[in-house]
Amino acid sequence: MDRLQAMEVFVAVVDSGGFAAASRKLDLSAPVVTRAVAELEARLGVRLLTRTTRTVRVTEAGARYAEDCRRILADVGDSEAATSGSRSQLKGLLSVTAPVLFGNLHVTPIVADYLRRYPDVDAQCVFVDRVVNLVDEGLDVAVRISELPDSSLRAIAVGRVRRMLVASPAYLAARGAPQRPEDLAGHVLIQPTQIAPYPEWRFAEGGRPLVQRIRPRLRTTTNDAARSFALAGLGIARLLSYQAADALAGGELVPLLEDFEPSAIPVHIVHHEGRHMTQKLRVFVDLAVDRLRANPALR
User: Fold this and answer.
1) Is the separation of the CB atoms in 20 and 30 below 8 Å?
2) Measured distance CA(10)–CA(33) in Å, rounded
3) Kind plus residue range of the DSSP H or E element containing 159
4) Of 167, 147, 138, 143, which is closest to residue 237 (Cα–Cα)?
5) Which of 232, 223, 259 shows the shortest CA–CA distance to 169?
6) Tens of pLDDT along 235-273?
7) Which residues contact 193 (CB under 8 A, 6 or more apart)?
8) Do 14 and 143 share a domain, yes or no?
9) pLDDT attached to residue 276
10) Which domain holds residue 287?
11) Which entry of 13, 47, 209, 236 is 20 to 30 Å from 286 by CA?
């Protein structure tokens, strides 16, 4: 097996989390996959993977090498595409995942523009309010609104959002505005995506965390519904800033307790690159990064 093929096998093992999964993905026998990685380790003189009877974990040196391999394979793929004249002929399926409301508001326009530009590409959009494993579920790219754990995936920061409390002017006219988190005990609260019997809202004061137990009157499984209830004047909702941006700009919602907001949350585009879909994915990622970084709701 040549060195480029061995690199591709190694990256597949890292991204798939094991030799068996990589062999299925590449349609190679398990011994061939194992031998390719062993040959790379022997050539480099370092251990790339730590193997146990149950798991395969990438070492620190292996993680760095996997990133180098992805870059090399991507460059080779782009060079082949340019030489064959297919750079403008993107084809295949692109799979994108994002939180439900973020996907509807901000990812859908990007996907629509991408499909208009490249009519031979099909798209699958998976908008769900949970963390989707790109490898396990066979997806190409995700928008993540959170601090990210260490991962073999690539992450590109595109903005930040705030956790904020909002209410309608009508509600505030009737009930007044809270001045401190403790005042929320005397208000009607709307809690999205929370199943705990006694949920908490986290704040910050003077750089120190502040936790406030709440008893919501209204619970809902989606942020979109919580936003709608707040717009209807039913109470105070906790949303991310992008979810309330339009209503805040139009005066339909009012921000509350801004001096007690915790640190902003980063927004990333997360993706993995495979040799055979790099060009299609890279073009989409470049477009999405440009659009989201220019989005005032993510500043």
Assistant:
1) yes
2) 8
3) strand 154-161
4) 167
5) 232
6) 999 999 999 999 999 999 999 999 999 999 999 999 876
7) 129, 220, 221, 222, 223
8) no
9) 45
10) 92-158+265-298
11) 13
